[in-house]
Amino acid sequence: MSLATLRARIPAINSWLLAGVFFCIPIQVAPAFWLTALMLLLWLVEGRYADKLRTLRAEPLTWIFAAYYGVFLLSMLWTEDRAWGWRMVGKQQFFLLFPLYFTVARREHLGRYVGAFLLAVSMCELLAFYNWAQLQLWPGLPDGIRVAKSSDDTAPFVDRILYTPSLALAGYLAGHRLLFEAQTLRSRAMYVLLLLATTANLLISGGRAGMVGFLVLLALLVFQRFARRPVLAAATAALLITTVVLSGYHGNSYFRERVDDAIDQVSHYEDRPNSSVGLRIVYSTNAWRIYAEHPLLGIGAGDYPEEYRKMNALHTPQWEPAWNPHNQYLLALTSAGLAGGVALLAVLLAPVLRRNRDDGRRRMSRALPTLFFVLCFFESYLMRSNTSLMYVLFLAALWRGTEDAAA
């Protein structure tokens, strides 16, 4: 094969590799790095650098993601714990890979990328249902593939903190295909089944942030379907959310325990030291105190553990210390001050505010940041590997389509 022939085939090859990275999102990130490395190598062999740079310069998200990464990098100038600081900066690495993913993504292959993600989620759901049956119904069954973080985790590859956001997005995408894309009875039935399976998987997973995010996306999907009938949309969304919550509460003892436990911890968190919900309340309170003392520049990317230890000892000594506030907004503010907060809001709001063709891409490009806008109150999800990959990857594919359509 000649070099010219290879270069001509690289865009198609890389598009398949990109689909493989989508498949990795709910599973493990390590294979995604290998696929990305191969993709980068082929990208370099392909050439056409001037065209690629021209495309990237014209794309606003290239600069927004670079600025977001840059504020964490800049904060290294005033951090004291450089070792931890570089570790935290490294957790933003997928934002640096956006240019590669964006230039590799092909408008006509969006369905392939979404399909690869949904296929991976479907596989994970089947394994999770087996794990749930083995834990709850038939303990004599052989052990399944299950993450070993906690005894009640049913997720097969990553814990529920990282698993349920993928479920939430998969539920929305299944519903989107059902309402807007499916043309045959068979395909509609398939997406109904996937939506129901995803909802059930969320109920048995125990991931509260993912469930809240899913309910928000479910409401958004209804409003997108009945865009010109807001009263009907509001009534339908309220009915669907109520049905999901009540069905889960009365039909699943584990979901009911998680809900009751969360309500109890919120109401009496001061009397429940180191409870999961109570910890997040204390984390947020102390993180805000740290930010209030360093509002302009923050404390730097590396100093959060030590600063939190001091603040925790002063105000909440009976609670465990933390290495991150479990809140993306507070992480950005404490690390890089006002610039960090502004950069984060740009990352989340730009896809929502951008004007483009009113089609499926626009609907999905608004759903993803809506999900993360909610999730980021519960955890620093844009520095967690699987979820930050999901955010960057989907926006690369969705925005490339928008750019092509507007050209």
Description:
With 407 residues, the protein is an all-alpha fold. The chain has one domain. The protein has helices at residues 3-24, 30-46, 49-57, 60-74, 82-90, 93-96, 98-104, 110-136, 160-181, 185-205, 208-225, 230-251, 253-267, 276-293, 304-315, 328-353, 360-375, 385-406. The chain is globular and about 70 Å long. The two termini are 33 Å apart.
Main pleated-sheet profile: none
Q: How many separate structural domains? A: 1
End-to-end distance, in Å?
33 Å
Low-confidence stretches: 403-407
Rough outline: globular
Structural class: mainly alpha
**Could you give the count of β-strands?**
0
How much helix is in the residues?
over 70%
Strand content: under 5%
Average pLDDT level: 92
Question: What series of H and E elements makes up the topology?
Answer: HHHHHHHHHHHHHHHHHH
Q: Compute the number of helices.
A: 18
| Radius of gyration based on Cα positions | 22 Å
